[in-house]
Amino acid sequence: MRIGFEISVLSRRRTGVGHYVARLLGELLNRDDGHEYVLFSNRSLDRGDPAVDGAVVAQTGPAVGRWVWMQTALPRALRRKALDVCCFTNSVAPLRQHAPSVVVIHDASIFLLPDCHPLRRRLAQSVLIPAAARRAGAVVTVSETARADVVRALGLDPEIVHVVQGAPPAGFAPVTDTARLEGVRRRYALPSRFVLAVGTLEPRKNLVRLVRAHQQARRSGLTAELVLVGPRGWRVRTLERAASNADGLHRLGYVPTDDLPALYSLATAVAYPSLYEGFGLPLVEAMACGAPVIAPERPWAREVCGDAAGFVEPTDVDALAQELLELDGDAQLRTQLQARGLEQARRFSWTRSAARMVAVLEQAARG
């Protein structure tokens, strides 16, 4: 088949959705199954990026806003390439196009937690996501929990909604090289003990409550400091105000992916108190690197972590503070969570996810 992939999300500074798409596409291109992949983007792509190596990069015209490009230039580019099927990787698709389509909807947060999104995004996506899903030959999402949420929120036939999970990338494993660990510690001026939180600094990640819980736990004797990793997102000033006078708080900003395994390996624990995710890649990355994990008491996090995390109600600052204290002071519990996490992370594989995606694409092309 000739398979199109819309990959505008593949910026150089990738976050969750970009990592998911890059890792899945890279695995698809490594398969020796005879399919040809044609990539479409409204921005220039790095031809040296492993995620696009081996694909045809289509020329789609001048760089314009993604919404305008998707509804104007992209349909013409798709038609010229005579595709058997096209995958749209970030929830929306052209309202008119000729090839069968598969749309990846990573979660239903725009419908379930609308206040966690800017107004402009809510207005656009609340219309475009249902339209794309109704026109699609298949919809892909990233967990069984997200599948149920998407089916319910959009009123879709469950038979057309498929799960293609995320997974740890190659090279995400416990780092034991002392020189590498110390190099990362010096580069970011890391304390000897710290709780690590990875994710875009935005309301849905629930970092304001994490900062408050950490400060409360510090007053009760917590020795670990708090390290936030991630780019500035929407409504970040609320977090900045909470963090302005916080004790033992370090903000590293965006960190290259190559440094993340060492950061996870150095961390005393990884806290990911997000209010809602489709999957939560930092959870499976942390487990793969042998970090003890604190996860939110939510179905999607239970699905990803199994019994390999300490679970806490993410809106309860007192409970989160108590969980930080308990994990900080109990070396045996940390060791147990590390072992369970390594085992749980092995349940996820980009190779299996790519095979599942190919099956969905082939089915959509036939249908």
Q: What's the short version?
A:
The chain is an alpha/beta fold and 367 residues long. Helix content is 43%, strand content 14%.
Structure write-up:
- The chain is α/β, with parallel strands linked by helices and 367 residues long.
- It has 2 domains: 2-167 and 349-366, Rossmann fold (3-Layer(aba) Sandwich), CATH 3.40.50.2000; 178-345, Glycogen Phosphorylase B (Rossmann fold, 3-Layer(aba) Sandwich).
- It has 15 helices and 13 strands.
- The chain has helices spanning 16-30, 66-71, 73-80, 109-112, 119-135, 144-154, 178-187, 207-219, 237-243, 260-266, 281-288, 299-305, 317-329, 331-345, 350-366; strands at residues 2-6, 36-40, 56-57, 85-88, 101-104, 138-141, 161-163, 194-198, 225-229, 249-253, 269-271, 293-296, 310-312.
- It has a 7-stranded parallel beta sheet, sandwiched between helices.
- Helix 11 (281-288) links the parallel strand 11 (269-271) and strand 12.
- The longest helix is centred in the middle third of the chain and has 17 residues, at 119-135.
- It is globular.
Give the strand order of the largest sheet, numbering strands 1, 2, ... along the chain.
3-2-1-4-5-6-7
The CATH architecture of the largest domain: 3-Layer(aba) Sandwich
Number of strands: 13
Give the % helix.
Answer: 40-55%
Portion of residues in beta strands equals: 5-15%
Could you tell me the mean pLDDT?
Answer: 95
The radius of gyration computed from the alpha-carbon positions, rounded to a whole number of angstroms, is 21 Å
Distance between the termini: 14 Å
In the CATH scheme, the class of the largest domain would be Alpha Beta
Number of domains: 2
Based on helices, strands and strand pairing, what is the structural class? alpha/beta
How is the CATH topology of the largest domain named? Rossmann fold
Major beta-sheet overview:
7 strands, parallel
Order of helices and strands: EHEEHHEEHHEHEHEHEHEHEHEHEHHH
- Uncertain segments are none
